[in-house]
Structure formats: structure tokens, C-alpha cells
Amino acid sequence: MTLNKHAFETASDQLFALDQGAINLQSHIHDKILSIIENHLKALDYTKLVDFFRFQKGEFAAGEFWGKTVRSACLAYQYTSDAQLLEILTQSVADLLTTQTEEGCISAFPIDRQPYHSDLWERKYVFLGLLGYYEITQDPAILKAMIKLADYTISQVGPEPKVRIVDTGWAFDGIESSSILEPVMRVYMLTGYQRYLDFAAYIVEEEGACKRENIFEAAFNGRDPKDIGGNGDPAQSIAKAYEMMSCFEGLIEYYRVTGKEHWKEAALKFYNKLLEQEITLLGSGGADKPYNLGPGTGEQWNYTAFEQTNPDIGLMQETCVTVTWMKLCYQLLRLTGDSRIVDEIEKSIHNALIAALKPEGNYFDYFPKFNGTRNSQVNFSYTIGDFPLSCCTANGPMGMALIPFVNVMNSTSGPVVNLYISGDSSVQLPSGRTAQVIIHTDYPKTGSVKIMLALAQNEAFTLKLRIPEWSKQSKLCLNGNEIAAIPGTYAEINHTWSDVDRIELELDMRCRLMDAPIGSNRLGDDFQALVYGPIVLTRDIRFGENINEVVSIISDSEKYVSLTPVVPTVQAHMQFAVPAGQSFFQVIDYASAGTTWDGHSEYRTWCPCPSQH
């Protein structure tokens, strides 16, 4: 993940990440990140991850695990500055580089099988792992290794007579391999070597990342994501959610350098289509039915936003999709400064992502469900020593480590507060001096947020505060004086700030009653769900209630539900009593449901309701 601006950008970002060590969260999210570091990122045998490159057996996608894990660990280190974690990374990077040949090859495939199957996909993750480590250390040996690997790659892949990139990959006509675009652009940004920009242009402008059609032009022309690359046969669909979004991450990096507005517009159109058609109430997407039945079961675009209550769906919302969606949103947030994008990241964090994490921090649910139980079933994994490492367990820590860098960001005019997670952040002001942004809150348990600044001296700048689109009746005050807070925007406070200034924000936490979307199967119609701020609420059998009963949830004319807060009687962040008919039923936050990972905490999110037809 690229956090900061690059030396060769010509299309300026609007928002920027804070520096390493500048962020200190004080919340359960901080605790979860530490748990992941201790029980996952420090617990893995990295030597065995490097063995995939050392012995080059060419096992499917085995080489992705080193890069995914190291990329996640590098970002976690940037947040925590954990010295032991850095030492593990340093040893593993050095070990990996012993596998690099004089020609520059780092591959888990023998030479006679390069660059086919999952080889380029795995090299992408090698690049991303090395880029993460280089961002921390600025070690010239790492940059040299990346240059050698990039040169080796473009010696094999490109216009004929080289191997066309769309003739590689395992199932998606080049989409998976073409996602190498992102790290290639980042290596270009570090070096300025024209040959890397030429290779990126080849992927974008000439091949379009897919043998069937240019996926970037398809997005620009308004094609629905589920139909991109389609040939009319659902069983041969290549609309693989995770890989396709990865290509668009690379397209955004390409735009940053070239400044071609066409590609920015393509990325934004793709994002908006996903938001409309694919992203569910939990902040993830992709499914195994009903339209696309191709390879990657449960992981293809399928109009999932409309079909999320379809009872025919067996698998959906892969954690890799959740994390990559968050990363794509983060790229576009930096690029556009659109506060509504933070709403989407927040939704994914508090629902699909955190709910997928086992309490021990060492495993992520592959396919988090709306209803049922958490489980350890996976589509794709390797056992590393005695550690069961799935692609989602390798990817999940990246999503968690990204959260601190979204919470508070910076702009050319001053700090930007996004997620309202309690803690403090050190922000460089336009003057070059530093301010501490201090957030006190129990949000999202309640909507009350207090913010103060610690400054070396009084100073004029703009502080931006995200007003979520769902918060229709926010109240924002500076030193007791009310300021406009328009939903779906940043409230921009231009002020000469001092240590005595106090900001108070009350977000509108009225619970919203959501009707099931209208999909292809009428059996999915008669369900409702409850959303409290960014939190999806869920029934759990630990309350001794029939979670599958039909309930008539009482709401007002605007579909707001009056909840009664309850001191949690199970392990949960929040619990409420919901009025239904003449009685109440209990709900907790989705991330706290199902946490026994067995039938003892079966849960239901979309509740059956009386027929509305």
C-alpha cells in the first residue's frame, strides 16, 4: 500500500497519510492490530514462505503468501514501530533476496514455466512486500532488487514476440497477471525509468488487462462490473472481484503519473458501479450466484448488492474482496478528497472486516455470512508449519493495518478527521509546525465526539471533519458555537487555533431499518436489517430467542427505529432491545455476533419480516 505522495506525481492527491509513528489509537481496533501482530505476523515461519521461491515447485499461487504477509507486516510496523516485527521483516527480506538470480528473477516457478499460470500474480506480491519494506528502510539494496526483478519481468512479458500478459494467468484471461500494474507504477515512481512507464502503458493502453476486452475502457463506457470480460457463458465468467479491483488500483497509480483524466474517470465510474451494484450492507461483495458461475467460487461480481438476500447464494463476501475494496476506496479517497468514500471504508471496517477476524487474531473467515456461523472453511490455503494460512488470512491484516492511516489524514490546508477512533495523531501543519489532534469518544457506541488540539503556538489553518452521509441531523460546535454540518461532506473549520479550543460533534445515531433489495429471487424479498450509525446489528441465539422468527419491527415514517440500549449480556461492543409488535428482541453489533465460531452463537442479520407484497 502506498501511503504518501510520490516524487513523480503530476496529478495531485487531495489527502495524504500521516508519517510512521504519528498515530496512537486507543480502542479495541488498536488491541486487535496488536493481537494480529503477536499471534499471526510474528508467529509465522517466514523461512517456509521463502521456501516457495527457494525450491520453485510451481505450486498454485504459493508465492503470494510471502508478499501479502510482508506487505501487511510493513504497514503494521509503520503504525506500531514494533522493533521485533521489523527484525523479523529484515531477516525475511534478506532471505528472499538470496533466491534472486543474477538475471533478477524472484519466482516460485521454474524457468520453463515462467511467466505462466500464477507466476506474475505472485511476483506482484513480491514487489508489494519489497515496496513496503523499502518504504520503511529506504535501503538501496531493496530498490536495486526491485529494479532487477522489474527488468527481468519486462524481458519476458510484453508485445510480441514476448509473452503477452493477457496470455498468462490461470483463469481470467490476464486480469490476475495485469494487476502487477500497481507495483510496476510504484517502481517507476521511485526510479523514473521510462521502460517501466512504457510497460504500464502496454498493460493499460494496449492490452487493457484482459484478452477478452479492455476492462478499463469497459468501465469508462459504463459496463456493469459483472459483465466486464463476459462471453455470454456464466460458467466462463472472468469478473473476479478481487483481481479486477487490483487492476484498478494500478490504473489509479497510472493516472497519478500520466494525468490522463480519461483513466481517472474510468476508475471513478468503476467505483460508483461497484457501490451501486456489488457492495453489500456489510461492506464487501462478490458471490457464487446467480449470474456469474465462473472460476473463483463465491468471488465473482454477481450484482451482489441486489442479491445479498438471495437464498440460493452459498458463498459470498470474500475477505480478500473486503480488503481490496477498502484499498481501492483509500486510493480514491486520497485522489478525490470525497468524504463519502470514508463512509464506505468505515462500513467495511466495522462489519465485514472485523467480524471476519478470530478473537485470537490469527485467522480471518474466508466468506463472512449474513446469517449462520463463523467457520474455518476456506477455498484456498497452505499450511505453513502448523499455521493454516489462507489467502484471506494473509490479506486481512492489511485491512486492519490500514485503519490508523485513514483515521486522521492531512491536506494542504490542514488536518482531516475521518473515522473518529479515539486516540491522538501528530499532523504537520501548512506552516511546517506540528499539531496533535486528540480525539475522545466511544463512537460508534454513541455519536458523541470531542476533539482538541495541542499546538506549540496559536495558528490559523483549516480542520476538516467528516460528516457521514447517513448522519442526517448532526450537531457540530466549536467552543459552544454551532457550525453547519452537512451530511456527506467535510465540515471545514477555518480558525486560528489554540490549545483551549474545543470541538464537540454529535452524530445522528438513530437506527435505520433497511428493506431487502430487490434481486432475482422473490424468496429474498421479505427481510429487514438494522443499521446503527455504521454498525449492522444482528440477532444471536445466545439470547435464547428464536432468531429465525418473523418479526414486525416498529419504525417511524422515515424508517427510524427507537432502540433501547442494554448493558451487554454477552461479549459484545453494544447491545440493544428492538421493538417488535408487543415485545422486544435483542441485537448486538455484527462484529460481536458468532464469536464462538460454532453453533453456540449462530446469528441472523437479515431478519424475516411480514410480507410487504
Automatic annotation (TrEMBL):
Keywords: Hydrolase
Organism name: Cohnella silvisoli
Any one Gene Ontology molecular-function term assigned to this protein's record: hydrolase activity
Protein's UniProt keywords contain NAD: no
Domain Non-reducing end beta-L-arabinofuranosidase-like GH127 catalytic: 57-396
Protein name according to UniProt: Glycoside hydrolase family 127 protein
Residue span(s) of domain Non-reducing end beta-L-arabinofuranosidase-like GH127 middle: 417-509
